[in-house]
Specification:
Strand content: 25-35%
Structural class: mainly beta
Number of helices: 6
Distance between the termini: 75 Å
Number of domains: 3
Number of strands: 30
Largest sheet: 6 strands, antiparallel
Helix content: under 10%
């Protein structure tokens, strides 16, 4: 293999639409026909994916007769030295000499290509014999993400045609959108990679998640760590991340003071940023209240039972079935979402009087509320008069593990208005109440917390059932000494939760403090 310029390397920086041509010859001076691969060695290409492409032309004459034997192909992107098959299986008969022109071009992608301004292409070339026993290196670049608990995956060595099943990586603040495959003849179908005749790279491709965009929009930052949820959060602990049903959710914890919102003539606290980018806020009164203040103004509806009826496990539901006083005869029937609970009726009325009546509904997102009726103990029936422990009980008390979740275990319990992809589509209005899991991540700990931002001085309902026991539906309250309360208890309050949509969030001003809450332009703090 001989190069016209006497140089077996390339070190170039290209301008848009510029093309470089590398000419070389391959001569078979042996006494057997040869089959070879041409390889890039120690390739570094820091241009954007798709910016650099190459074609390869071949001729039996030095000046004329060139034909394209490899059509437009992307140059693999790599920040570290990487070996890659440029073209495999070239047949070079005894005594033959072939002439080649490798054309490399920097394409105008019609998108911002600022990354290409200082990018480099560096490589050298080699010709190697084809071997049926040859193994090729598979390298996986997670791009700062992780698979399971691993940030690095060891290199693998596979023969042509062997396969590797990929897993989905995760990365806080960003959304995985697929793999980029670099390797001649290597292909990825669904989650199965088939190795071609080349060293191959799988490169994880990411984009900012909607929740990350909202976090940046509000000028907030999060901590990349996991708190101990058994502990009361009595200090300014900050913002943390956890998965929810939409992606990565950023939740507020402790005595944070930059989470006030003024909307619909009320003050609210940011509970969390949902994975879909909407802002989940919890009612906090007609005026701004500091952390630790006990005030009935911080609850919207006083002294309302969760459900006025108690003689069936179905009454742990935000909605339930069958309608009326008929006993449920299966868990599917008990959780059929036909009839409204007492608390849902009260919340819907509050929404009509305060949101619809004042035309604020267009700023609210149809993001789910979870009434988790999954069973803690599989043998429990979950209907009729059968004693049943529910999933939230195991996460909060039971064998207290302090491991809350922001995912709704059952789609049927994920209450939405019209979204049937992520939820059940059973709500009349996009309003609900918090879950016990949200109370836990906010910092209530295993007992009453008088410091964190959800403390209001009074018991208020969550949407999380504890159990149906001794003919009584038991519901977990927020910020209470009690781990559960009978659903018919009158001395518990309602604190509405809504989700503000992304379009509205983009219009907000303010810094989120009590004196300067997030709000629309023209609205006084």
């Amino acid at each position: 293999m001989k190069f016209a310029d006497g140089n077996s390397t390339i070190n170039e920086r290209l301008m848009l639409e510029e093309e470089i041509v590398k000419e070389f010859t391959i001569e078979n001076t042996g006494d057997l026909d040869a089959e070879i691969n041409i390889e890039w060695l120690d390739l570094i290409n820091t241009y954007m994916l798709g910016s650099l492409t190459y074609t390869l032309e071949q001729s039996e004459e030095k000046i004329t007769g060139y034909e394209e034997i490899l059509s437009k192909t992307e140059v693999p992107v790599s920040n570290t030295e990487y070996s890659y098959t440029l073209i495999p299986d070239l047949q070079i008969p005894v005594g033959k000499t072939y002439y080649y022109r490798l054309r490399i071009k920097l394409n105008d992608l019609e998108v911002e290509q600022n990354e290409d301004i200082n990018a480099i292409l560096s490589t050298k070339f080699n010709a190697t014999p084809v071997s049926s026993d040859k193994k090729y290196t598979l390298e996986i670049d997670l791009g700062g993400g992780m698979i399971g608990e691993e940030y690095e995956i060891p290199k693998m060595h596979l023969k042509e045609g062997e396969t590797y099943s990929t897993l989905i990586p995760t990365k806080l603040g960003e959304e995985f959108i697929g793999w980029i495959v670099s390797g001649y003849g290597s292909s990825l179908v669904e989650n199965k990679l088939t190795i071609g005749k080349s060293n191959t790279k799988l490169i994880a491709k990411w984009k900012y998640s909607p929740s990350n965009k909202t976090l940046n929009q509000l000028g907030l930052t999060f901590k990349n760590s996991i708190p101990n949820f058994r502990n009361l959060a009595t200090t300014d602990e900050g913002i943390f991340a956890m998965e929810d049903d939409y992606g990565i959710s950023y939740y507020f914890r402790g005595t944070v003071t930059n989470k006030y919102v003024k909307f619909a003539n009320f003050y609210w606290r940011i509970l969390r940023i949902n994975g879909n980018g909407s802002l989940r806020v919890v009612y906090d009164g007609t005026s701004a209240h500091p952390n630790g203040e006990a005030s009935l103004d911080r609850v919207a509806i006083q002294n309302v039972v969760y459900n006025s009826k108690i003689n069936d496990a179905k009454y742990v539901g935000y909605m339930y079935g069958p309608a009326g006083d008929a006993y449920s005869t299966s868990i599917e029937e008990a959780q059929s979402n036909i009839e409204d609970s007492t608390i849902k009726i009260a919340l819907d009325k509050w929404y009509e009087d305060n949101i619809l009546a004042n035309n604020f509904q267009n700023n609210i997102s149809d993001s789910l509320f979870c009434n988790d009726r999954s069973k803690e103990i599989e043998s429990h029936l979950g209907y009729g008069s059968s004693n049943t422990y529910y999933g939230g009980r195991g996460r909060y008390r039971g064998t207290w593990s302090g491991q809350p979740t922001l995912k709704c275990p059952q789609k049927n319990d994920a209450f939405t208005v019209s979204d049937i992809k992520n939820g059940n589509g059973s709500l009349k209005y996009p309003v609900g109440i918090i879950t016990k899991d949200e109370d836990l991540v906010a910092g209530t700990g295993s007992s009453k917390n008088q410091k964190y931002f959800l403390y209001k001085g009074y018991k208020y309902w969550t949407m999380t059932p504890d159990s149906y026991y001794s003919s009584k539906p038991q519901i977990m309250p927020a910020n209470s000494w009690d781990s559960y309360i009978s659903s018919s208890s009158l001395y518990v309050h309602i604190v509405p939760v809504i989700n503000l949509n992304i379009e509205f969030i983009e219009t907000l001003i303010g810094t989120g403090t009590m004196e300067d809450p997030f709000r629309e332009k023209g609205i006084e703090p």
